[in-house]
Amino acid sequence: MIKHSTESSQKHYHDGLAAFRKKEFEKAQAYFTKAIVLEPNNIQLYDSRAATREKLGQLTSALQDAEIILNLEKTSAKGYLRAGKLYRLLGQNEMALDIYNKGIKEVKQNDQLLSTLHKLAKEMQEKSQKSTVIKSTKTCDITVMFPTELVHWIFGCLPFTSLCKASIVSKRWRNLIINSRFLWRNLDFTINRPSKAVVTDQVVSTYVNRGKLQIQKFICHNAGYLSDKTLKIFRAVPCYHLKTFELSFNTSITETAFVIFIRTIGTELKIINFSNTYISDKVVKTILMHCPQLETLKISSCVKVTIQAFDLGDRQCKALRVQDIDLNGCQGINKAVVPFITILFPNITRLNIHGISGLTTRTLADLVHFPNLEFISMFGNMNEDGLDIENAFITFTSACPLIRQFVLEECPDLTDNCVRFLVMSCINLEELTLNGSYKLTDETTQHIGTYCQQLKVLRIGKSPGITDSGINEMLNLGFGSLLEVIELKQNNITDNSLKKLADCCDKLKEVNVNWCHNITGSGVAYLVKKCGKSMQYLSMVECFNVAPDAVDLARKILGQHGGMVNYLFRTSR
């Protein structure tokens, strides 16, 4: 029986060593623990488990194993070496020196590791003597006072790039961070990353192997250097708990790699962003048929995607939870996609079909199938298709009262009545973008001022019919207390509009008056003096009546608070 237990223990021990070599430290720890249960007096097993726990950042538990070794055999050099190293990682150098000196006394003189103990004790003694820092003012690693779980939680609050920087502060922090898969569950290569930093397959592999099964998020919006190997890395783990996968601006990854990736680990994905990639109709269909948890699908500027991507025929769509779909700039998709979307995604709340060709008044009217719609973005003129544009707006707005963000740019047929129907029905509007609507007049601004008290973003540029009178009347109606962004480019406004905005809108962050030739330095100076603390961006391209000293003043005031001024002048008066 004893022999059988020993054989089983050795099997677990060797399995643990194999797992350790593969850097599968959690598995290795489990194997070594099973072996210890069968052979509780084997100091080699405790030493191996201590080494594994050290890799996992469980320094306190590893130190307990080292102490068990010394209790079992007071002459064990391995025990003293292991305990000393762990004390040093915990920042307890005095304890490390004491344990080395104790080992020198207890270890047998013919032990080959005795010289190592002497060497380490001498190094620790020299460091202690050279230190000129007063003990009371010594820096202290306060994380040694907290349980490992709490330390992991603290580090887990850091952004991805900050976590990378923290890992080079000290050896202890590096061990805690690098060996904790929990901390690497969110891989976001976009936050505070240097513009010249390149994300390669090798970089992705490094971080994925740190997080392994714990990875829930991967974001890389500058993925030009990634290849099929990146997707293969995620499959090899495999990252079954992945919920967010955003990989954009890539032309190297193939259709086959995307398809296999989605089929392998797409079950739990909630957010997919493949914008500006060469994905095909087959990839989109694979997503729709294999991602039952999907809520957001962004495939903007994917030039190979066509209307056929959404025609599943007899095949079942499992992505019934999709609420946000972005098709902005997909050249192969036209107005016919809307009927497919109404069938596939009945719960849509955000729809971006900006740049989709052939939109008509019927397209707008068909949006009545999305009663929960909160965001819609479109571009271009709407040709009449069975009803005029005003009736199309009546149909749409009566069925979609929850709209908060409405974007319709470069639609020359848009009228004041269209805007009236919109703002009267959608009283919760927070963003309204109508750039390039040439027929709009001051009547539109009156409607906005009356019904859009919660508006934060207003873009009504390139509408020559909007004047100072309309802006003033809009603001006199109590509008503007929440306004943060306003765009009035190429409108017939003067300094009066800027001064009125400055007086009524104390939360302004961004103002665009490009090509407003009647704007002068007086209006600009008044605006920045009153709103300079909140403003982050002021654009005055081709405002040739704004004197250079006013531009310098604007840059000085906004610059004090981190803002910037865009001023470019090329034309002659």
UniProtKB/TrEMBL annotation:
GO cellular component entries: SCF ubiquitin ligase complex
Keywords of this entry: TPR repeat
Domain of life of the source: Eukaryota
Residue ranges of domain F-box in the record: 140-187
GO biological process per UniProt: SCF-dependent proteasomal ubiquitin-dependent protein catabolic process
PROSITE patterns noted in UniProt: FBOX, TPR
Species annotation: Gigaspora rosea
A Pfam entry, by short name: DUF7885
TPR repeats: 9-42, 77-110
Protein name: F-box domain-containing protein
